[in-house]
Structure to design on (426 residues):
């Protein structure tokens, strides 16, 4: 059987390796050259934080140890408000963390593993057309036309998926009200700012935020996020930038210059119901469920797509069509649930105005996790379990009003009696 995968991103390479391990022989086509995926600097490419779902997928292809070795372990958030650092751990359960890694570093790990497994990857092949009636993909490669037939085709080629476009399936694309610029901070400036290298560092603002993720070399990758009208204002009036982020202006070399000279990019959310088409074409990842980055689950969700699909494939004895039908029946509900959770989690990042409410809520949930081993906060369920996203969303909608009713009362010490009162209601 000829299996073609369009897209050599994180999920595409992961799927290719999994299929190879199952005795299949997929061929991966990627429009970029290999150097563009693993070496070339991209001022819009941001760090990835891999959590439990992503780790599970990487363990299945023997890449998890390499990820851990090449990443920074992140245990919580620090909100920097009025010059004071406020640390909130993700969980009090021992040994649990996120893994912050440069996207290109992760791609190097995955591509190397794919080559070791004998996966064929064709870089620099731009998909031009698909003749669905005779199952033929047409590519441009170095100004020449190249054709490849397939029996089964995977479109894992990102939010701007060419496969999805050629299929003509309807989808909705929602632009976030927020746009961003990537502003990196070198290790000297990190020391000057006294940033924590095992936390996400957040400078919140009622109208946006700036946050950084630590890198293995001691530098931090940062993103400044604002609505387009505010960002326009900041670009035209440097005084406004100094008003919003005075310590960054003071302690980061050439911060204003970096801000002015860096291109903006936007976040988008995609919903597509046509995951499986023509009994032989399956879409996955950002092609069908691109999401806002505010829960750091985009890569994790796409990797989990692969884990779930391949588990079903094994159960169905390698029947790709039957597996795809089952996959597209259940997976979209979870994908769209994490899209909703990601939108909502922005409130917990740019939390300057409601910080006491946020802190009270986090303290409550940390105490509940400590006292009741079977209790997982929304964040813990998303990041440290494989509970379906749709179930997490349902649980969270039930819990949230109850927790918020108590959160403003418990900013500091929380008694066991209060926790014992709250727990049965959740």
């Amino acid at each position: 059987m000829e299996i073609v995968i369009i897209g050599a991103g994180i999920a595409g390479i992961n799927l290719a390796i999994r299929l190879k391990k199952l005795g299949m022989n997929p061929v991966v086509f990627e429009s970029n050259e290999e150097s563009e995926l693993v070496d070339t600097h991209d001022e819009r490419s941001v760090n990835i934080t891999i959590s439990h779902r992503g780790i599970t997928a990487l363990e299945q292809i023997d890449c998890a140890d390499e990820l851990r070795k090449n990443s920074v372990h992140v245990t919580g958030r620090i909100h920097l408000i009025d010059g004071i650092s406020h640390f909130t751990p993700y969980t009090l359960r021992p040994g649990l963390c996120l893994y912050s890694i440069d996207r290109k570093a992760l791609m190097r790990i995955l591509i190397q593993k794919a080559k070791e497994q004998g996966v064929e990857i064709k870089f620099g092949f731009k998909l031009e057309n698909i003749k669905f009636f005779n199952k033929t993909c047409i590519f441009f490669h170095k100004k020449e036309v190249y054709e490849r037939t397939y029996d089964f085709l995977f479109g894992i080629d990102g939010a701007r998926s060419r496969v999805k476009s050629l299929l003509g399936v309807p989808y909705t694309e929602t632009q976030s009200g927020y746009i961003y610029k990537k502003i990196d901070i070198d290790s000297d400036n990190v020391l000057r700012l006294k940033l924590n290298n095992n936390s996400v560092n957040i400078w919140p603002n009622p109208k946006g935020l700036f946050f950084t993720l630590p890198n293995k070399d001691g530098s931090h990758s940062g993103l400044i996020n604002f609505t387009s009208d505010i960002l326009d204002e900041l670009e035209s009036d440097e005084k406004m930038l100094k008003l919003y982020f005075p310590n960054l202006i003071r302690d980061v070399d050439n911060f204003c210059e970096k801000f002015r000279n860096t291109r903006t990019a936007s976040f988008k959310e995609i919903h597509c119901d046509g995951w499986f088409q023509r009994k032989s074409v399956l879409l996955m990842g950002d092609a069908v469920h691109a999401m806002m980055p505010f829960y750091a689950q985009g890569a994790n969700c796409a990797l989990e797509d692969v884990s779930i699909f391949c588990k079903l494939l094994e159960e169905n004895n390698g029947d790709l069509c039957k597996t795809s039908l089952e996959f597209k029946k259940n997976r979209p509900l979870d994908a769209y649930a994490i899209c909703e959770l990601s939108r909502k989690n922005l409130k917990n990042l740019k939390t300057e105005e409601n910080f006491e409410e946020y802190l009270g809520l986090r303290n409550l949930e940390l105490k509940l996790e400590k006292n009741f081993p079977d209790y997982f906060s929304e964040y813990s369920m998303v990041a440290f379990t494989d509970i379906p996203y749709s179930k997490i969303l349902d649980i969270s909608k039930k819990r949230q009003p109850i927790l918020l009713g108590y959160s403003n009362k418990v900013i500091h010490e929380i008694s066991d009696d209060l926790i014992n009162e709250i727990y049965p209601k959740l």
Q: What stands out?
A: The mean pLDDT is 91.
